[in-house]
């Protein structure tokens, strides 16, 4: 049995558009022992804004905004994510999305990408973020009152990345994030030969896998975990208050359903499935940390079931919550590439 190799993340989209409610749910998740919470847009606030508000109200839980990589400006997202890491004291990560949608592309004057180009575009975007986060050395800010210098210019480094569809020049406009490099989770489909890699310098740290059903997902987790850390994504509907989860799922409009794997059943069955994931991804020679990312079908119903009935039964599998999200994932210290080269 794999020991303490799992992280748990809870999606908080069900908290609604009130940032206070989102922060309250983040606090509950933190108190329960979740390693991270995730956010997408609620229609009013973008994911980084939601995460930033929750950061100020929490102390040790990781913050994972879900941000599209295909049609957003990478210089801006690198700055936003670095700022979130600073605000949270090193608890930020990035759940990279690849929304290859015509409406999003048209908003920035582009057209959707061909399928074989998605991984290449994601790799270019991640390379920009990694290099911008390294463009300031950790001690670049000196605040030398005697000479009137705020920065040591020798510790800022020029960045120029030319992707297939864009180019970015730096350095960044914000200091290096406390973690150095934020953990990046990206869809497994982007990890292709010419595309994204499990790579310390310019790649992603965790591959998010998906499948049509839980058993297929389990098989894919076993396969992908042989080469790196994985994230298991589940839409969760749990039996609660005498109502079968299947009833709630069937009552949900088709338009609101996602492409993520659905888990429908009891809290105990979910515990058993997560234990099966831990066994399938066990690798004693390399104790990498894998993520179970849970999207409650109804946060007000499934959230308490997860907190009260599921999480307490997984304590022997869950890694300790560390001071930084990077440490929780057991990732190595992120040394600055420019300082190492010097």
UniProtKB/TrEMBL annotation:
SUPFAM superfamilies, per database record = Bacterial luciferase-like
Q: Which GO terms describe its molecular function?
A: monooxygenase activity; oxidoreductase activity, acting on paired donors, with incorporation or reduction of molecular oxygen
In this chain the Luciferase-like domain maps to 14-186
Pfam families registered for this protein in UniProt = Bac_luciferase
Residues in coiled coil? none
Q: Which UniProt keyword terms apply here?
A: Flavoprotein, FMN, Monooxygenase, Oxidoreductase
What name does UniProt use for this protein?
A: Luciferase-like domain-containing protein
Source organism: Glutamicibacter uratoxydans (Arthrobacter uratoxydans)
């Amino acid at each position: 049995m794999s020991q303490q190799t799992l992280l748990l993340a809870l999606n908080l989209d069900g908290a609604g558009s009130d940032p206070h409610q989102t922060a309250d749910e983040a606090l509950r998740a933190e108190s329960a022992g979740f390693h991270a919470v995730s956010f997408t847009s609620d229609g009013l606030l973008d994911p980084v804004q939601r995460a930033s508000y929750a950061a100020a109200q929490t102390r040790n839980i990781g913050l994972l905004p879900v941000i599209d990589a295909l049609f957003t400006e990478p210089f801006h997202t690198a700055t936003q994510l670095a700022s979130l890491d600073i605000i949270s004291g090193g608890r930020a990560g990035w759940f990279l999305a690849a929304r290859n949608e015509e409406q999003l592309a048209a908003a920035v004057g582009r057209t959707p990408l061909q399928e074989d180009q998605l991984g290449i575009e994601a790799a270019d975007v991640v390379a920009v973020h990694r290099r911008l986060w390294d463009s300031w050395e950790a001690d670049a800010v000196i605040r030398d009152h005697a000479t009137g210098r705020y920065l040591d210019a020798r510790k800022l480094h020029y960045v120029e990345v030319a992707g297939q569809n864009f180019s970015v020049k730096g350095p960044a406009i914000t200091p290096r994030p406390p973690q150095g490099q934020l953990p990046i989770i990206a869809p497994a489909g982007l990890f292709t030969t010419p595309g994204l890699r499990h790579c310390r310098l310019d790649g992603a740290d965790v591959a998010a896998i998906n499948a049509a059903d839980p058993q297929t997902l389990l098989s894919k987790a076993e396969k992908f975990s042989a080469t790196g850390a994985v994230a298991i994504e589940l839409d969760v509907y749990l039996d609660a208050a005498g109502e079968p989860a299947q009833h709630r799922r069937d009552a949900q409009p088709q338009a609101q359903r996602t492409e993520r794997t659905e888990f429908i059943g009891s809290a105990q069955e979910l515990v058993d499935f997560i234990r099966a994931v831990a066994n399938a991804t066990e690798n004693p020679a390399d104790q990498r940390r894998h993520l179970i990312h849970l999207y409650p079908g109804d946060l007000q119903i499934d959230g308490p079931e997860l907190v009260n009935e599921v999480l307490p039964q997984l304590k022997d599998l869950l890694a300790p919550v560390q001071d930084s999200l990077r440490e929780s994932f057991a990732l190595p210290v992120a040394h600055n590439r420019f300082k190492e080269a010097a």
